[in-house]
Amino acid sequence: MDQIVSAPTVEHTSAVFPEGVTLDCGTVLAPVEIAYRTYGTLSAKRDNAILICHALTGDQYVAETHPLTGKPGWWSRMVGSGKPIDTDRFFVICSNVLGGCMGSTGPRSPRPVTGGGTPDAPEPWGTDFPPITIRDMVRSQHRLVKHLGIDRLFAVVGGSMGGMQVLEWAATYPEMVFAAVPIATAPFHSAQNIAFNEVSRQAIFADPDWHGGRYWETGAIPARGLAVARMMAHITYLSEEALTRKFGRRVRPCNDTTGKAAGTLSTFGDIFEVESYLRHQGSTFVRRFDANSYLTITRAMDWMDLGQEHDGEYAGPFVGTGTRFCVISFSSDWLFPTSQSRIIVHALTRAAANVSFVEIESDKGHDAFLLDEPDFDRTVRGFLSGAAEHAGLSRRAAQEGTHAS
Amino acid sequence: MDQIVSAPTVEHTSAVFPEGVTLDCGTVLAPVEIAYRTYGTLSAKRDNAILICHALTGDQYVAETHPLTGKPGWWSRMVGSGKPIDTDRFFVICSNVLGGCMGSTGPRSPRPVTGGGTPDAPEPWGTDFPPITIRDMVRSQHRLVKHLGIDRLFAVVGGSMGGMQVLEWAATYPEMVFAAVPIATAPFHSAQNIAFNEVSRQAIFADPDWHGGRYWETGAIPARGLAVARMMAHITYLSEEALTRKFGRRVRPCNDTTGKAAGTLSTFGDIFEVESYLRHQGSTFVRRFDANSYLTITRAMDWMDLGQEHDGEYAGPFVGTGTRFCVISFSSDWLFPTSQSRIIVHALTRAAANVSFVEIESDKGHDAFLLDEPDFDRTVRGFLSGAAEHAGLSRRAAQEGTHAS
Question: What burial class does residue A155 get, using C-beta atoms within 10 Å of its C-beta: 0-12 exposed, 13-18 middle, 19+ buried?
């Protein structure tokens, strides 16, 4: 892979909170900017808002063309007019997480006050960006929701790290969450998942272009290390069955290093199609994602542990909750396996919460929540529709409303 | 991690075959040196030899202190006097695979004839080492076995890549294998396993100290890339349950980069115990293993496909076989899952082979075959003992014999 200079920057819609947010680490991070997108119309009663929380490498462009990659929104299958999260009925909000790199305050943001550089060209935070937790992400989203004039979310929905945010929303602001849909997630990050994240980080640290996190000084980015991290992570998002179905053992001529004829047995010549696919995943990822954000956000996932402040009792944060939960897992997900969703369900049950649980049969692995799974779509559509009845939402709430921003 | 210079070299016992081996790629690799160790005594009838095949990063030091690491042999639990592979009864052979780095011919060996350097200081093969297959490894072991004066092996035993060699032995030299014990293995390398290997290779390629494979010229080795490869691979050798049992979410103060006080939330300070463990696995591995060997051997695994020359019919290589098979898998092994062992068993059954199959209940993952699993030990002991009766081996064969080398 050639050396890649920093990704192009684009303008994002955002809200700035000058007073900032007090983080779990004790630091007051100020100012905090949160980049976001909305879809649909906020009802007059301001009661039809759904907050969608994105996963590790997702962003706010949930249901529209991505301004950097030109690809469709990451959940455009799920969010839109007539879709399971129906923007004809609901006002959908999605924001880039704190610590991210798509317009929200993160390691690439200018460091105020104490940083180096001149006032005209302040240095980025880089590795001095304070440590962020999933709850810190939720705290900043809470600011945004209030800023949009919303006192109570109809629902919070998200998969993977997005599902961790859903759980933290229900735990931290229970009165603001009517319904919660944590998908393919867990109440804590497992030792195995911490281990995978650590390998990702070591791959980035090992890249000489990381320069101790100060890569902005060189104009290059740690593209090779970040690509290795992404390639490894991508395997964990799929399943053995899905990889076998998609690629099997098919070979494609490559010859990118030796010039040997196609079809000959060689160590560096022909490659398997699955390898070509992974290399593509790695090389496209580094053009849109910041390495220091990757470090910050993977660390936030590692610290996720809903039982930590409750002597390991995951029911602790949910005692007395009035939120309706729909917990969803996928049968072939080995990164956030069904057993971890069951821990959530059992904890919510011990807390006497209103909880439904569905394990969707799928061979697509963890990424199933982003892919075409009709049974999953029906589950989300049905739960949200039924919950909307319980919430007393008008069937056409959005059409009676006014847009909030 | 500090820059590490090349690992110290030690003397190994070996046999040299000047005429070399004709490889699957068509190249005649000559000379070929195979480093090996033996344990126990060859019987007078030369009928009690067991060949043990090692896995990706194993070597010939199966049942004695390793000369580089000072650690016990990698299968000393299984091989020795009175142990499941009983050296009081059997003559045990284990050789370093072709392409390896513990004395057998591999990328670190001097390149004859056409290489650069002077005759006094020939260059190593490096990335010009010819591509090796599992069958090529077996061909070179076949030379060694013949060299030791053995016309028929009582048994060939191995786990993981060692199990692939067991299958290739039975397929290539059926008349020379009385019994075969392929453990935690597969008749082909799956798309997911190729994908993991590819990430390992990319991690090595990304290390600037790899220098396009010519790292011997600099005195440094691609330690960071190789460590990342090892860390990732190590996760795949364990299981979520084993990692949770061993490490859970326990944190240990580290502060290796920031000097922050222990116990504070920070991105680069305290680390989870599982991270510390993985870092240790990575840093010790690079002191004993050669990066170009890692590339060569992972590629050999990727090419493993017993069905390739039989239109995808895995029974093809085994039609008419007289070998007795004992196929063993572990319930929590997700790298070489039981489903892949079942493919072997079904193929052997279609070939009307004598085959037993045991799935051992274990939460230790793929590495279970290297760890304390009494049920596994009993299975190997029982099968070998029973097969020895069928083979008409004396109960004390070794004590009547003479050492072969």
Answer: buried
Range of the domain at A107: 14-189+310-400
> pLDDT tens digits for B258-314?
444 444 566 777 789 999 999 999 999 999 999 999 999 999 999 999 999 999 999
Predicted confidence (pLDDT) per residue in A10-19, tens digit = 899 999 999 9
Cβ of B196 within 8 Å of Cβ of A235? The answer is yes
Beta bridge partners of A53: A158
Note whether B206 contacts A225, CB cutoff 8 Å.
yes
Q: Which two tokens stand for residue B207?
A: 């290390």
**Does residue B6 sit within a domain?**
no
| DSSP result, A281-308 | HHHHHTTT--HHHHHHHHHHHHH-BTTG
Phi, psi of A215 (to 5 degrees): -70, -20
Do the Cβ atoms of B235 and A337 come within 8 Å?
no
**Model ipTM value:** 0.92
Q: Is residue B1 part of a domain?
A: no
- Cα separation, B196 vs B229, whole angstroms: 9
Residue labelled with tokens 């990063």: B57
| Domain count within chain B | 1
A-chain CB neighbours of B194 within 8 Å are 249, 272, 274-275
C-beta of residue A97 within 8 angstroms of C-beta of residue A40: no
Q: Is A262 among the domain residues?
A: no
Residue B225 is assigned to a structural domain of this protein: yes
Task: Evaluate whether A265 touches B25 at the Cβ level (below 8 Å).
Answer: yes
The predicted model gives A354-363 an average pLDDT of: 98
* Cβ-based neighbours of B300, under 8 Å, separated by 6 or more: B99, B131, B132, B133, B134, B136, B137, B161
Q: Are strands B21-22 and B79-80 parallel, antiparallel or unpaired?
A: unpaired
CATH number at residue B317: 3.40.50.1820
Identify the CA nearest to A233 among candidates A186, A307, A294. A294
How far apart CA B159 and CA B62 sit, in angstroms, is: 13
The CA distance from B395 to the nearest CA of chain A, in Å, is 44
**Is B245 within any annotated ligand binding site?**
no
Distance between CA atoms of B185 and B167, rounded to whole angstroms?
Answer: 9
* Alpha helical stretches, state H, B92-160: 134-147
Residue B400 has pLDDT above 90, yes or no: no
Q: Catalytic residues of A, which ones?
A: 160, 333, 366
How many other CB atoms sit within 10 Å of the CB of residue A14?
Answer: 17
The confidence band for A117, taking pLDDT boundaries of 50, 70 and 90, is low
| Nearest-angstrom CA–CA distance, B347 and B341 | 10
Which DSSP helix (H) or strand (E) runs through B374? helix B374-390
Summarize the annotated binding site of A as residue ranges: 230, 367
Q: Which of B133, B191, B266 shows the shortest C-beta gap to A247?
A: B191
Q: Mean pLDDT across the stretch B141-166? A: 98
Tell me the three state secondary structure of residue B219: coil
β-strands B21-22, B49-53: how paired? Answer: unpaired
